[in-house]
Amino acid sequence: MQPTHARGVMRRHVMTPLLGVLLSACATAPQSQAPTQQATTATASNTPAPYTSTYRARASQATLIRGATILTGTGARIDNGDVLIVDGKIAGVGTQLSAPAGAKVIDAKGRWVTPGLIDVHSHLGVYPSPDVDAHSDGNEMVDPVTAQAWAEHAVWPQDPGFQAALEGGVTTLQILPGSGNLIGGRGVTLKNVHATTYQAMKFPGAPQGLKMACGENPKGYYGEKGQAPMTRMGNVAGYRQAFADAQAYRDEWDKYRRELAEFEKKQQGPGKKDEQAKPPSPPKRDLKSETLVGAMNGEIMVHIHCYRADEMAIMIDLAREFGFQIAAFHHAVEAYKIADLLAENGICGAEWADWWGFKMEAFDGVMENLALTDMPKNGCAVVHSDSAEGIQRLNQEAAKAMTRGVRMGLDISREHAMKWLTLNAAKALGIDEVTGTLEAGKMGDVVIWNGDPFSVYALAEQVFIDGALVYDRANPPTRPASDFLLGQYDATEGSAQ
Amino acid sequence: MRTLIASLLVICASNAVAQDVLIRGATVHTASSKGTLTNTDVLIRDGKIHSVGSGLSADGAVSIDAKGRALTPGMFAGLSTIGVEEVSQEETANDAALSLGAPAYEMQWRPEFDVSTAYNSRSVVVPVTRIEGMTWTVLAPGTARGSNFLAGQGAAVTLDGRRDAVLDGSRSLFINLGGKLNSLSGGSRAAQWMLLEQAVHETRNRISDDKALMHPLGREVFGRYLAGGRVVFHVDRANDIVKTVSLAKRYGIKPVIAGGAEAWVVAEELAEAKVPVILDPLANLPSSFDQIGARLDNAALLHRAGVKITFSQFEDSHNARKVRQTAGNAVAHGMPKEAAITALTADAADIFGLGASRGRIAPGQAADLVLWSGDPLDVTSVAEQVWIAGKAIEMRSRQLELRDRYFQRLKQVTSK
């Protein structure tokens, strides 16, 4: 099955971007800013963040995973190591850890343990299975700039793809709008737990993403209709006007806040109150510009679907013009041509291992792209899926890319390549302070694999989210998690296992 | 390794004259009843496998020490449009589907359309695919908007770069069925069966050309398939698969099921009727109402029931090389590894009528061979050397040229 965006601009698209602040962590700072407990939604107004997370960690038992090969996600490997999870958090990683009273002890001899995998680019829920017209909710292609649209408002939590991704070890994922528009809207980061509402999946404190798109998709779709953008010139003009408008909007709000402060000062100060004075009126809210202001303020991570090296360089200049940070270029099949430029600017390359050629801007794909993106100092390679199939085996994508890099002469260990699936992805999403590695204090998002996760034969055996066992291959759910699949095919029918 | 490369260079340099090649000490996955043979030699002569055994020798042969590594037959790249579709989304660079845009009553059915005639042996996709161990593919016409669910004919091609690449005896007709094709059959899959019946009727009875589905040539071609020809039906829903098998039986067609997401449900019927299935082992999601029962052990269940299977991705020609990974996933979900290797080699050849000449490592078979760095199905292995018709393929592609250009650049800028 092809990645979603590869099927053409008409139905599906590429991903959404993440926030800029977090991205800066990729290149310049060892750690990104910790998300606040409740994400502030970037608004020019003082409205509190709406659509808050209602996610609650499942009840969990203290768990000691003992005697495994551990890839910590920080670039380290521990042989015959232990991971202790207490109260939903990693309490210790090392050797010869002792189990607290009442802890469940898992003998993981011969097993491999990694952080839960993170996909920065998914359309699960917005382009769910089954792929029917009624479910096509990822691209608001009525205007090239729909920064006001939020992917989270279209996520269908009953998409069976979430459970399939969980069985592939994915514990966190960003759902992005498609790439049909220049600016598609906001993305949302989810915990991969089954829930009836998306709010109950929403990753607490994770910043939202902003999805932008370069190249063929926007210009192709709108150009064919005889409207802007019709060319790559029009694409860039479109981003620039949208951000220029947002700057003016931000100025309006800044002016209002100054006047309001002045007014309040006057009213509260000593002396006689001016009974006639009226407070200034706030500007009318513009949801489109609010999103872009959020990106410029660093509250929203910017994620840009962009294939070609030359276009990525233009987007870096765009970010400079308007003062935002790009978290990651997504797909980025030509990242290998400018890996040094990406690293210098603290931008991750979120990539497939081998998709190419489905369109002109993907014609120069190479299988060493991730390895070369990773090569410079501060290089930030991220394995992404953009696909309901690919998200189920991100570990195999990393294995292919690692293998090609090693064949080329680069020194890439399994413990290093594991960062492409965990820590680097967490950085691009701005959540690396709370998940993405096996380090004390982080969320208990952990996968036990039945073998080397860089093998095609490896399967996730047990998956923990915030310390709770949410998937156990030895005791698979007898009923599907998704309401949609309930009462259709029996999961236990004719099993080959 | 260095000696391997050196000897391969010799082979490449002298490719005008077929030279004997002796591969020594390999783990030979024969994909035949002989199974897997360790520490075994394979002698290639005149483009074919001359002998398989231990202690073989040949004067003047290029000798390659396999050092115990795996040697398999060249793998099947699946159904594809390699060499027919250079850039999928560019109209001028994609010849995969016939799309006349006329309604059925305007004689839109063109079974005489043969997509293999559009094959470009110089396509950059050809080397990209073959250096990954895939030595042949079956070109299958696509169905596009304004085309027909009877897509036309295709055939197997060897990927060694020859212009005349079609493999004799492999030509097949391709028919796509199911809900995704409803817009091409007046809104109902029931009309797909109806139109197929009409085509049979037209072919077998004298009818006026006025308002016929097919031209006289089309009827002639269609008629050949009614006389025991191979027709590949892309169909996913279990009920539709059974209906397809029964229609094929009724009209003397030799059916092959492609897609087959719910084939496991009717595995016994397929085994009984000896109908093979070409499936994507990764298709486990209910991505349409035709494949609600899709699951990861489809391959394992079909194999266990005795159905001959092979693997393919669908509509992914540029990355057809990924089929090897999909086979590995079939193994991870219960299919025996040797069976999965055989599925991608001998079984695929048998399904397309090529088993007598290729797909196995046995004397007399075409010397399409791959020497692997490790497990032939694992993602951490790569093809170290590929031979097609006994000739060592130059292990280069446009992608590797691009890689090397920018790897050099990056080495320079990052070493400063």
TrEMBL record, chain A:
Residues 1-34 form the signal peptide. The lineage of its organism: Bacteria, Pseudomonadati, Pseudomonadota, Gammaproteobacteria, Steroidobacterales. Gene3D superfamilies: Metal-dependent hydrolases (3.20.20.140), Urease, subunit C, domain 1 (2.30.40.10). InterPro entries: Amidohydro-rel, Metal-dep_hydrolase_composite, Metal_Hydrolase, Metallo-dep_Hydrolases_sf. Its cofactor is Zn(2+). Residues 263-287 are annotated as: Disordered. Keywords: Signal. Pfam families: Amidohydro_1. Residues 112-459 form the Amidohydrolase-related domain. This is Amidohydrolase.
TrEMBL record, chain B:
Residues 1-18 form the signal peptide. It comes from the Bacteria. The keyword Glycoprotein does not apply. SUPFAM superfamilies: Composite domain of metallo-dependent hydrolases (SSF51338), Metallo-dependent hydrolases (SSF51556). Pfam families: Amidohydro_1. Keywords: Signal. Residues 231-378 form the Amidohydrolase-related domain. This is Amidohydrolase family protein. It comes from Steroidobacter gossypii.
